[in-house]
What we know:
Layout: E1 28-30, H1 32-38, E2 48-61, E3 67-77, E4 82-84, H2 86-94, H3 104-119, E5 124-128, H4 130-136, E6 144-145, E7 166-183, E8 190-204, H5 206-214, H6 223-238, E9 242-249, E10 255-262
Amino acid sequence: MAHHPAQDSPLGKSSAYVSQYDPSLLFAIARTTKWRELGFTADNLPYVGVDVWNCYELSWLLPSGKPVVAIGQFVVPADSPHIIESKSFKLYLNSLNQSVFSDFAQVQAVLEADLSAVAQAPVQVRIKTLDEMTAEGLQQPLGVCVDDLDIQISSYEQPTAKLLQCGTEQVEEHLYSHLLKSNCPVTDQPDWGTLQVHYRGAALDHASLLTYVVSFRQHQDFHEQCVERIFLDLQRCLNPEFLQVSARYVRRGGLDINPYRSTQAMPISNVRLARQ
């Protein structure tokens, strides 16, 4: 197996717990390697989008010494030169735990500056109180769930667009599946998610979509790269007028990652699903 850039990161290694602010803990992974594998470059990306991260273990100290707990939302542009490696992100956020900040605004400014420097693109940060998160509540994905369809499948490592089928009728619909699973390319640990597809074009066969989703079950890739592969395969199959593909992943280490890829810019609704 070829050397993966994340093998040089803290991922899969024993790491010391650092509780004082340390932005050097962040580790960047270039997107260009995966872009080349999928057949495009930064100059001809076939989508627009973002990666939305949510942190449920954000904490720091006030000048009085009293701790604060909050929820962090981070929006990274899909065309940023770098992905922020998830374990390094967690270690960095941990380094705030015993660090003193005057208020939410200072924490937000520090996070925006540090994360933007690593991603090499502007990262938007919003810090939410627990009351705000409670008020937002949980939601269901839009549209039709394909998970109850009867399918036969025996291949779980090589997702391919050949599994997808479509007809000639033109439709617009929202489809989703809770059965998306892939594995980390470094640690081989499972990543669980809910895939959401919104498109306008030739009618996608629902059973073929479910078969395709399940074929990722032993596939090794990061969250962002799985969604990009799904977007490209659906685009090739449907040749749609419009396509948006997103995945809401189950959190790991207090962080969830939610990539959105679309043929056109659209508002992103960062709504929390039941497994998050």
